Amino acid sequence: MAKTPAQNTRPDGSEFDGFEEAPQPKLSGAPVSSSGSIADWAADLAKEAELDAVKARRKAENRELRSQAGKHRLKAGKGKDEAPAKGPAKAKAASAEKSRKTARGTSIGSSNDPRARAAAGLNAVAGLDISVEEAEASGATSANTATVQALSDLIESGNPLFKNGKTWTPHRPARPEKSEGGVQIRMATEYKPAGDQPTAIADLVAGANENERNQVLLGVTGSGKTFTMAKVIEETQRPAVILAPNKTLAAQLYSEFRNFFPDNAVEYFVSYYDYYQPEAYVPRTDTFIEKESTINEQIDRMRHSATRALMERDDVIIVASVSCIYGIGSVETYTAMTFQMAVGDRIDQRQLLADLVAQQYKRRDMDFQRGSFRVRGDTIELFPAHLEDAAWRITLFGDEIESIAEFDPLTGQKTGDLKSVKIYANSHYVTPRPTLNQATKSIREELKHRLAELEASGRLLEAQRLEQRTRFDLEMLEATGVCQGIENYSRYLTGRAPGEPPPTLFEYIPDNALLFIDESHVSIPQIGGMYRGDFRRKATLAEYGFRLPSCLDNRPLRFEEWDAMRPSTIAVSATPGNWEMEQAGGVFAEQVIRPTGLIDPPVEVRPARAQVDDVLGEIRATAEAGYRTLCTVLTKRMAEDLTEYLHEQGVRVRYMHSDIDTLERIEIIRDLRLGAFDVLVGINLLREGLDIPECGLVAILDADKEGFLRSETSLIQTIGRAARNVDGKVILYADKVTGSMERAMEETSRRRAKQEEYNTANGITPESVKAHISDILDSVYERDHVRASIAAPGGKGAKTDEGALVGSNLKAHLEALEKQMRDSAADLDFETAARLRDEIKRLKAVELDLMDDPMARDSGIDNTRAKRKAEATGKPMRGPSKEPNPDILRNRESSYFRKNDLDEMTVGRTEKPMPPGKLPQKPRPVDGKGDRPSAGQAAPSQASEQGERTAVSDRNSDPIVKRGKVGAGSYEDPVEASRQKRRPGKTGRPGR
Question: Where is this region: Disordered (predicted)?
Answer without folding.
Answer: 1-36, 56-115, 162-182, 854-992
